[in-house]
Amino acid sequence: MSKKAHLEPYLNRDELKTRYLSAKDLVESRRWHLLWLVSLDWSIKKAAEIIGYNYDYAKKIVKNYNSLGELGVVNRQKKGKRRAYNALLTDNQLLELIEALKSPPEDQGLWTGPKVARWIEKKTGIEKVWNQRGWDYLKKCRYSMQLPRKKHRKGDKDEQAEFKANLPLKVQELQRENPNATIEVWSFDEHRLGLKPIIRRIWAPIGQKPIAVIEHRYEWLYLYGFVHPKTGQTEWFIIPRVNTQWFNQVLAAIAEATGAGKDKIILIVLDQARWHTSKNLEIPEGIVLETLPPYSPELQPAERLWCLADEPLVNRTFDSLDELEETLAQRCCRERRKNVASTGIR
Asked: What SS3 class is residue 210?
């Protein structure tokens, strides 16, 4: 059994925890974290392992605190001066790493800091490269952790490029035809939501696995979302289904909400769903529809609305669509109020 470390009674457990949580210097924060764990009767070895410290270095921190109190925890390294590391790769080897990162690693998985560290070991013959140095070199190669944007494999790059080039021309044409009118470009899409739960990662206390109570039921409603990318103004409609009849009602509602008419033209960019291109559409005055190329979700700014709308619904179970709709409506109203407050647009 590990021997408990002694801490001089400069601060009690709660005060040590407060220092740890409130410290603005990252080095000092970790040192206070170590001392707080030791105050909870953790061994220095176990606390050091949790925080990621070398055992001897952790003992030195405890010794400094016992000798000097709070002064022993102060980060004496000059502020703004980063710790210098010896370069592990030559300029040519760094270029080789940049090239290697363009393809999957040997195991055909994903590049990580440890995998880059193993690559450096193999390339340089260095016996041991710390995993952190792999992460450092990912940053040095101008890489960052990102979630890929979805792109359909059937999307035509030429058609998408043509659409992006022609959209400003379409706006100019509308302006020539309506010289006294204001022209605005909006984006529109639909989002299906229902009683099938949405599971998303969340922050949770270490050692406590978050639980989401779920019950899969296949009942749905649809959120129709309009956004004016230039200002961020949004309009939302909760609708029971998607078809031409309901879309006609939504078009009438968005025309009224945006003031579309003779003096204000709203150009709405939307996908080619069959009810968006139906011959039975009733398009209000001041509304112009412009369809995207097939399989082009990456060109649709309205797609980015859904993460905002989903947030109060994730990891939750609703007893009925009415309950879900009430929560969703409150969220949409709140987002719209935030937009009005920031843009002044009603």
From this structure: coil
Q: Contact 50/37 with Cβ under 8 angstroms?
A: yes
Domain boundaries, position 224? 158-201+210-343
Instruction: Give the three-state DSSP class for 226.
Output: strand
CA 236 vs CA 253, 254, 329: distances in Å: 10, 9, 9
Q: Is residue 107 part of a domain?
A: yes
Instruction: Report in angstroms the alpha-carbon separations of 343 from 217, 224, 229, 237, 338.
Output: 39, 21, 12, 20, 9
Domain CATH for 223: 3.30.420.10
The residues, any chain, with a CB within 8 Å of residue 129's CB and separated by 6 or more, are 88, 117, 118, 120, 121
Model confidence pLDDT, tens digit, residues 182-223? 999 999 999 999 998 888 888 788 788 888 888 888 899 999
**Rounded to 5 degrees, what are φ and ψ at 204?**
-145, 155
Edge-first strand order for the sheet with 287-291 is 233-239, 220-228, 182-194, 264-270, 287-291
Q: What is the pTM of this model?
A: 0.62
